[in-house]
Amino acid sequence: MDQLGVLPAHLAPCTAQVDTTGELTIGGLSVSALVELYGSPLFIYDEEHLRAQMRASAQGFGQGRVIYASKAFPAVAMARIVAQEGLFWDAASLGELHAALRGGIEPAKIVLHGNNKSMEELSAAIEAQVGRLVVDSFDEIDRLEQLGTSRATRVWLRVTPGVEAHTHAYVRTGQQDSKFGFNLANGDAHRAIARVMASPRLSLTGLHCHIGSQVFALDSFRDAVAIMAELTLESGLDELCVGGGFGVAYLRDEHVPSVGAWTGWLREALCAHGLQEEQIFVEPGRAIVAASAVTVYTVGVIKRIPEVRTYVAVDGGMSDNPRPVLYGSGYEAFVPTRLFAPHDATVALVGKHCESGDVLVREARLPSDLSVGELVMTPVTGAYGYSMGSNYNRLPRPAVILVRDGRARIIVRRETLDDLFRLEADV
Hints:
Layout: E1 3-4, E2 7-8, E3 17-18, E4 24-26, E5 29-30, H1 31-38, E6 42-46, H2 47-60, E7 65-69, H3 76-85, E8 88-91, H4 94-102, E9 110-112, H5 119-128, E10 132-135, H6 138-146, E11 153-160, E12 182-183, H7 188-198, E13 202-208, H8 218-234, E14 239-241, H9 259-272, E15 280-282, H10 286-289, E16 293-305, E17 309-314, H11 323-327, E18 345-350, E19 359-366, E20 375-379, E21 399-404, E22 407-412, H12 417-420
Parallel strand pairs: 6-21, 7-8, 7-15, 8-9, 9-10, 10-11, 11-12, 11-13, 13-14, 14-15, 17-18
Antiparallel strand pairs: 1-2, 3-4, 4-5, 6-16, 16-17, 16-20, 18-19, 21-22
Helix pairs in contact: 2-9
């Protein structure tokens, strides 16, 4: 089915359906019933969608290893699903490391990233015996050698291959001018390889690169694969991770390959350059989780300015989805209880924060008879909403629920006013 009423099916979680009244259901549950039970705003995640995406990515990658990039959605409940599905977990902080351990991820299946890891983070990773520690700088090599134990720490080196991905400047990471990794063009990568290979306290097993996020052009990945495969083989290393960053469709007119197609293409490209399947790793994050969730809001104000614009203000905003403010990211909006109704008016869907830039969808198409109190939904919010959320304006963060087979459960409870002040000393 290409459409769920006015909602394009490719923007919806895989169990999404429209009932006879025109209301969206996810996991067999109606959106309005979920909001009535758990409040608004609300993140609704489809567990079947998450598991299906993980399985598709693993199937496409053959005998290679799939690492879930947890920054996209690092909840402990997500770690449990990752563990059950047999994927690895990419952590970029002490918090993401602890989420993995609390969720039951085997330490051997944890990969620790970060361009400025503290001694505390490095010590915790060594103590937990994480499977791979991705070294990002010469300073980090110094720290690891200071922390050296009787057992050599297993590391990868992150390399910036000089590939400039076709994506937003803020999420490019593989070009020469980058805060990440060892620069290949100026010789830093080769110097780092030689140094770590000579260290009795470190065991270099592989290389890593990541060229950026929300990348649509295969040419960018093709260049990175060729460069990194050659460097891995000439260095005599056993493992190579080419990162992730596969683009995701957020808008009705966007269409991208499936996550299984992406990983399948990468597997073939890496093997064509002389690597074996069991040597290769990939890190899809957004591509696994983005379309698994929707965010549902309640309309509080409709402000019509004749011959200028109509503003529809909801009870969330940039605190639960900062991507439009940070990157100018585009989203669609729908009324989930009236998907058979014409969405025939163009409005600005805005949040409740004291910022003119607090705009969720600048040109949202919603019913012209929309009224205060109705629900409005933005799909494809499973990545970088919860994880990048904030308490700006002292707004409590929404609840996060997981739905499956007609059942819902809270995986992150809604914050209370008491939660907002729990860290303050003078209360």
